[in-house]
Design a protein that fits this description.
The complex is a heterodimer of chains A (415) and B (375). With 415 residues, chain A is of the alpha+beta class. Helix content of chain A is 41%, strand content 14%. Chain A is globular. Chain B has eleven helices and ten strands. With 375 residues, chain B is α+β, with helices and mostly antiparallel strands. The chains are: A alpha+beta (415), B alpha+beta (375). Bound molecules: flavin-adenine dinucleotide. Chain A: Its cofactor is FAD.
């Protein structure tokens, strides 16, 4: 058991450090360091442009998507090198948040199911941030129950014609491509009639409508498809095997390992260190300390759980469903941490103006974004199901629709 | 970086698990639980023969000289099996105190006896309610003898000797506290067994009346040693707690698969599944904190105080959480004496208090994080 770099790891770290020191956009370092969940904004700059420029610079020098093969725009790095890079990249890594879906989910799905020529064409510009990708899975009728989706794909000659609606599609408004899960056979059980594609978001018939989120921001969208045509060559996996293809995507989604899920703890600890209460510094208050200690061990527990997972990965073991723990714990923790940080501010905790709210309204922003964290990428309940069924081996939920043809499944709870 | 135990260490864990499942089945634990014996003597001897008592004791003092990572691995298995032996008091507390502060002669005298199972030791620190603090220590050392009362003392009724924290000054500072080794079988020592919630491990009250005491370490430096011993024991005990938490989770999972209600295994009800998933989460977070503690302990890193507190808090929570919900999953059966659930519940709640209660460690953790941040 040790934390020391091997000589190769140390050499890699030194190289990464030197390159970052020479190339990172340092003018934004302070703002990025202070940014917290729910708020990465740069004063007087377009964050998408800054993020794309940094990603491109990394890609040109061989530092983008480190674990991807070189021929697809990566570096062929080990899992540990990826973590070392993340440690060294520090706050600049926050600029990558707009590429997470493309890099974490779409890329791996393309790698597993696209043809060789397509991989060489589409993956390098995805790695370099020149092209942004989104994931078109969820629908009004299919979120947790993804296989309940209704967007139709019908074959016409060498093309497929798509009609339907997606929802909550993060980043669709600035995406160039998307991976799309559709229904190709409504007469069989729901998991058996799905097919996956990738498409150009500028295709005729694709309409993106931003949705205003509960937090007030607009990061996700509704996407409408009206007679959108996709060539059969852009199908990923076999016809009606889309469920298996999407499982690859979702496994990769949950594995986002070492990415260091935000818990809000470091921010809260710093805040309590500086905050003065009526009877003295917050950090010297017994009740405050007890709360902090309980969150501290959750945050460190998550950190070392991900280090254990990385150690297992580097031994060649496959990441499993146990990685669902990160999002499950961090999601509700960040919500509780934010609530408590506001509690410590008393009535003024309700103010959100950066001038009036403590630490520029960081915790207020966190509070308002946190509910989304517990829902996106699988709700807390779905994460618990995964742990119970796939880690602990408990029986699956009873699925009354399992063997029913999709078009015979009831669509309303109260008839 | 490699954040895991080595293959040899994992092999040792398998060996210990196999040994304990054969030599320490729940039936054996119940002999002690039911008051038929104060501890499992045969198991104690067996542990000595396997070399487990002296895993972290250097070879020159009769141990296996393997190290603390190996001791962590054994500790987890001891906790899993609820081994009814004075392992923690002898190995984590007494032996570690002697390793840290003992003279060569004291090490030669006690450590081989500990490794061979011929001496049971303990730490006599507490004097009634409250958490570890130099101010709470009233037992006084004067002219080579001790006077006063210690309670509770873990395994005090079966121990051969105790490392005792006593007052040697009256400045009101930590430097008032010194450590002594006392032969509990000698004159001037009265031992009384106390009942406690964990019936598989005894607690005692020890009264010293001019009991002969031998200094351990320099006068006035006892509190520093106590702090180090508690930190080290916190990591080791945390491994016991994680072992217990994991076992309680397993028991709950197995029962949920077997028990049928409403025509289905209860493990197919989501409320039960989610309860078990949450038990898994707390046990996993605790295990990861423990691994960090194990690393800090084995390398004697500057991070040890913080890592020990984190491991302690996290493992205490996990064991309590898993033990209580294991009973819940078992329903009425879980509340019977006959089922083993209560043994884990008792242990989880008793072991939460033995080295200082949860609130003590919460306070310590934040204190230590603050110091690190300020530095
Ligand atoms: C910020 C954000 C970004 C998103 N980005 C994307 C994106 O880029 N692409 C995309 O495809 N989707 C995206 N989503 C959609 C997201 O994946 C879904 O919202 C999520 O999976 C939940 O589905 P739902 O909203 O339909 O809720 P529902 O499935 O209707 O769930 C409602 C409630 O019922 C519970 N529930 C449902 N099924 C079960 C069950 N079997 N057992 C127990 N409880 C259950 C849920 O836990 C929840 O509490 C995003 C969502 C958010 C909030």
């Amino acid at each position: 058991m040790n934390f020391d770099d091997t000589p190769q790891e140390a050499a890699f770290r030194a190289e990464a450090k030197a390159w970052i020191a020479a190339n990172a956009p340092k003018q934004y370092e302070e703002e990025l360091r202070k940014a917290s969940l729910g708020r990465v904004q740069l004063k007087g700059a377009n964050i998408l442009e800054v993020a794309k420029a940094w990603q491109k610079k990394k890609a040109d020098a061989g530092w983008a998507c480190l674990h991807w093969p070189k021929e697809y725009g990566g570096r062929g790095s080990s899992p540990i090198e990826r973590v070392i890079w993340q440690q060294e990249e520090g706050p600049f890594g926050r600029l990558s948040s707009m590429f997470i879906i493309g890099h974490g989910m779409c890329g791996p799905t393309m790698m597993a199911f696209a043809g060789e020529e397509q991989k060489r064409k589409y993956l390098p510009p995805l790695a370099s941030g020149e092209k942004v990708w989104c994931q078109l899975f969820s629908e009004p009728a299919g979120g947790s129950d993804v296989a309940g989706l209704r967007t139709r794909a019908e074959k016409q000659g060498d093309e497929w014609v798509i009609n339907g609606q997606k929802i909550w599609t993060s980043g669709a408004h600035y995406s160039d491509y998307g991976i799309l899960l559709t229904r190709t056979d409504p007469n069989v059980a729901k998991h058996k009639g799905l097919t996956m594609f990738f498409l150009d978001m500028k295709s005729p018939g694709v309409e993106v409508r931003p949705i205003k989120q509960a937090s007030g921001a607009s990061d996700f969208n509704e996407v409408y498809f009206t007679d959108v045509r996709i060539p059969d060559s852009q199908r990923l996996g076999n016809v009606n095997d889309g469920w298996n293809v999407s499982l690859t995507t979702l496994m990769n989604e949950r594995m986002s390992i070492g990415a260091g899920v935000a818990t809000g703890f470091p921010e809260l600890f710093d805040f309590c260190n500086s905050l003065m209460l009526e009877d003295g510094p917050a950090i010297e208050n017994r009740a405050v300390r007890a709360k902090l200690a309980n969150w501290a061990v959750k945050a460190s527990g998550l950190k070392y759980t991900s280090m254990r997972a990385i150690s297992a990965l580097s031994r060649g073991e496959r990441p499993g469903p146990e990685n669902s723990i990160g999002k499950l714990v961090a999601g509700s923790m960040i919500q509780d941490v934010a609530t408590y940080a506001l509690d410590l501010q008393g009535a003024a905790g309700a103010l959100t103006g950066p001038e009036d709210a403590e630490v520029a309204g960081k915790f207020q922003a966190m509070l308002l974004r946190a509910p989304g964290t517990r829902v996106e990428g699988g709700t807390d309940e779905i994460m618990r199901n995964i742990i119970a069924e796939r880690v602990l081996g408990l029986p699956g939920d009873i699925r009354v629709d399992k063997d029913v043809p999709f078009n015979k499944i009831p669509t309303k709870g109260r008839a | 970086m490699n954040f895991d135990f080595s293959d040899e260490q994992k092999q040792m864990r398998d060996e210990a698990r196999k040994f304990l499942s054969e030599q320490c089945p729940p039936k054996a634990v119940r002999e002690v639980l039911d008051g038929k014996a104060p501890y499992d003597k045969a198991l104690w001897k067996g542990l000595a023969e396997m070399g487990f008592l002296g895993v972290a004791i250097p070879e020159q003092f009769g141990g296996a000289g393997a190290g603390h990572l190996e001791l962590c691995v054994i500790a987890e298995e001891m906790g899993r099996a609820l081994a009814p032996v004075p392992f923690s008091s002898t190995v984590y507390l007494a032996a570690e105190a002697i390793l840290i502060a003992g003279s060569d002669a004291q090490k030669q005298k006690w450590l081989p006896k500990i490794a061979s199972g011929d001496a049971i030791g303990t730490l006599a620190l507490f004097e009634g309610k409250g958490n570890p603090s130099p101010k709470a220590i009233k037992v006084a050392a004067n002219g080579g003898v001790l006077n006063g009362v210690k309670k509770p003392v873990a395994d005090g009724a079966i121990a051969d000797f105790a490392v005792v924290a006593a007052r040697t000054g009256s400045s009101g500072r930590e430097s008032d506290i010194s450590l002594f080794i006392v032969d509990l079988k000698a004159g001037g020592v009265e031992v009384k067994s106390l009942t406690n919630i964990d019936l598989t491990r005894g607690q005692a009250e020890i009264t010293f009346k001019d009991a002969k005491a031998e200094p351990l370490g320099a006068a006035g430096e006892g509190w520093g040693v106590i702090t180090q011993v508690l930190d080290r024991a916190a990591v080791l005990t945390a491994f016991e707690q994680v072992g217990g938490a994991d076992r309680a989770l397993e028991m709950g999972r197995d029962y949920a698969l077997d028990r049928i209600a409403f025509g289905r295994p209860i493990g197919s009800f989501q409320a039960v599944k989610h309860m078990l998933a949450d038990m898994y989460v707390s046990a996993t977070l605790a295990r990861s904190n423990c691994y960090y503690g194990a690393w800090a302990l084995s390398t004697n890193a500057g991070e040890l105080p913080e890592a020990a507190a984190a491991a302690r808090i996290s493992a205490t929570q996990a064991f309590q959480h898993c033990a209580k919900n294991n009973i819940q999953v078992h329903g009425g059966m879980g509340f019977t004496w006959e089922f083993d659930c209560h043994m884990y519940y008792r242990r989880a709640n008793a072991v939460a208090l033995g080295l200082g209660s949860p609130s003590y460690w919460e306070d310590a953790l934040i204190d230590r994080m603050r110091k690190k941040n300020a530095a």
